[in-house]
Amino acid sequence: MRIYLVVVDDTPEAEVALRFAARRAVKTGGGVEILSLLPPQEFIAFGGVQATIEEEARHHAEALVAGAAGTLFEESGLKPAITVKQGDGPKIIREMIAANKQIAALVLGAAATGAPGPLVAHFAGADAGTLTVPIMIVPGSLDREAIDRLS
Questions:
Q1: Between 20 and 30 A from 86 (CA), which of 5, 57, 58, 78?
Q2: How far apart are the first and last CA of the chain?
Q3: 88-113 tens-digit pLDDT
Q4: What does the angle CA 129 – CA 89 – CA 132 come to, to the nearest 5 degrees?
Q5: Phi (first) and psi of residue 84, to 5 degrees
Q6: What single-letter DSSP state applies at residue 102?
């Protein structure tokens, strides 16, 4: 099965990327894996405080991903795989792609204005040719009708 790996966060461009990936998956008989990345936490001398901060960040990411998965299921009928990981985003993405040969593409949303976002800048920049799957960069300025037409 062809799986589209989508990185989801609180940004509007992540919603655009998820919709695009879901539409492609439906049309190709594939699936979607949603990845939420938790940034590495700065070390705080008091372990209990750090644990609380990390737990809050994980709960926020899990709620975000659950909401995205619910929307995806409502709109396309697809039940996505969900992954929440903490650490360096590009490294985690590479590890996931290497571990799952069914991942056919990495789908990222680019910000509608300004800088495209750190993952888009990373994978479309110096590392553009290093992945083993294509990168689909979906412009964040696309509306639902444009996404549906193009996907």
A1: 78
A2: 18
A3: 999 999 999 999 999 999 999 999 99
A4: 30
A5: -125, 120
A6: T
